[in-house]
Amino acid sequence: MSESEDDPRFRSGSVEASHSGSVEASHSAHGGGRPAELRDQALPELLKQISEQTATLVRKEMELAKAEMTVKGKRLGIGAGALGGAGLIGLFAFGALTAFFIRALDHAVADWLAALIVAVVYAMIAGAAALLGKRKVQQGSPPVPTRAIDSTKEDVEWTKSRAKQAQK
């Protein structure tokens, strides 16, 4: 693992204002920011560091996006499965309701009541499965890695603030 991967400046939300009003990396167990050291380094070394840190940042953002999409994909899969189950149970309810109509018209005896009870139970199961499926699909939608996007936006803002500070 390179030093840039451990650097707290490359973690989402790690930028904060110091007492002097300038933006610096937050001080953590890894040693904190190094603005004075950066000013003393040669331009080629700084360019090498920014290249390494940018590559690390992009790799980390891609890992975050992949993890987020995996979670959302699982939620969408569960929701779609529940909706499919609701459709199947709904088909059973239609079959039972059909049997009810046949028995009600044919004999008008207790058999039709049994068919009606089965149809109602199947319909309630289909309704519950449909509600579950709808909720799971809504939890997984839209399938966009929002946390990774937000983290990337924070990183861009941090980079812009550092560039403006370096120009002063």
Keywords:
mainly alpha; two-stranded antiparallel ribbon; 168 residues
Describe this structure in words.
The protein is 76% helix and 4% strand. It has 168 residues and is mainly alpha-helical. It has a domain at 69-156. A two-stranded antiparallel ribbon has the order 1-2. Helix 3 (43-106) runs antiparallel to helix 4. The two termini are 33 Å apart. The model is unreliable at 1-5 and 7-32 (pLDDT under 50).
List strands and helices in order, with pairings:
Elements: H1 3-6, E1 15-17, E2 23-25, H2 35-40, H3 43-106, H4 110-140, H5 146-167
Antiparallel strand pairs: 1-2
**H and E order:** HEEHHHH
Q: Helical amount among residues, as a percent range?
A: over 70%
Unreliable parts: 1-5, 7-32
What is the β-strand count? 2
| Gyration radius over CA | 30 Å
Overall mean confidence score, pLDDT: 75
For the sheet with most strands, the description reads: 2 strands, antiparallel
Termini, distance in Å?
33 Å
Which of globular, elongated, flat, extended, rod-shaped describes the shape? Answer: rod-shaped
Oligomer: single chain
